[in-house]
Design goal:
2 domains; 4-stranded antiparallel β-sheet; 6-stranded antiparallel β-sheet; BirA Bifunctional Protein, domain 2; about 250 residues; alpha+beta; Alpha-Beta Plaits
């Protein structure tokens, strides 16, 4: 009884690479068998949807380069699947899944609900399967994905927005998701948009630190923000980043 869809997907991938295919994208929906821990161990049969990406990012063409797919191609595909099912607010959390590359793997959450996992196949397994180039996999709870949620409507503000940028120095192991979550908590509904637009390691930055630059779009639904309002919001954001993540303004 299979506990994951990935062995079957990898077998299909190997069959295609042996036939000189240069670009592979597959998915499967199926039932697996797992033990659910509780008062007593119980066998459950979740329906999962899994996929595999391998090879060149774009079809062969004089107009396309030959770059291979990477983790962000995989994450982009998963994001689109989740958005179509109404999961527009998810978070990715680094994981130590032994099947996956330790630096390119994550679990996927919405609130406290685990939706699935994704990442690059561990290099040792790539070598064992004799697959040339990185292999990327995902696996999601099909019930959660297929249970489409209705999108929530929020009116567009009649009042102007303003953008402020922050340059921060923080620990090299602090993920961008933690920065975004901290800012969303501290700014609340005043934060209309968050954008990470630069990451820097190198001269002038300690080896255990990194510099990140984020753009914050601030807006109110009921009035125009004044300079005093904006300064108070930015002070609150910086204070929260310092307290929660040990960041400092650069």
């Amino acid at each position: 009884m299979r506990t994951t869809l990935w062995p079957g997907l990898l077998k299909t991938l190997m069959a295609n690479t042996s036939r000189q295919q240069q670009r592979v994208r597959f998915f499967e929906v199926g039932r697996c068998f797992r033990t659910q821990q509780g008062a007593a161990a119980e066998l459950v049969q979740p329906v999962l949807v899994g996929g595999v990406l391998w090879g060149s990012r774009l079809p062969e063409s004089w107009a396309n380069d030959a770059a291979e797919v990477d983790f962000f191609d995989l994450k982009g595909d998963v994001d689109r699947v989740l958005e179509q099912s109404g999961h527009s607010e998810v978070r990715y959390q680094a994981t130590t899944d032994p099947t996956l590359h330790p630096g390119q793997s994550a679990t996927i959450w919405t609130g406290e609900v685990l939706l699935g996992r994704l990442g690059r196949l561990h290099p040792e397994l790539e070598h064992r399967f004799d697959i040339k180039g990185p292999v990327f996999l995902f696996e999601l709870d099909a019930v959660a994905v297929l249970a489409r949620r209705h999108p929530a409507h929020r009116p567009i503000s009649r009042y102007p927005s303003v953008r402020r940028d922050l340059s921060l120095v923080l620990g090299v192991d602090v993920p961008a998701a933690a920065v975004q979550a901290c800012l969303e908590r501290s700014l609340g509904s005043a934060l209309a948009n968050f954008r990470l637009f630069d990451v820097y390691h190198g001269e002038g930055i300690d080896s255990n630190k990194k510099s990140v630059a984020v753009g914050l779009t601030l807006q109110d639904q009921s009035r125009t923000l004044t300079d005093t309002d904006i300064n108070a919001l930015m002070d609150a954001a910086v204070s929260a980043l310092e307290k929660d993540l040990g960041a400092r303004r650069r």
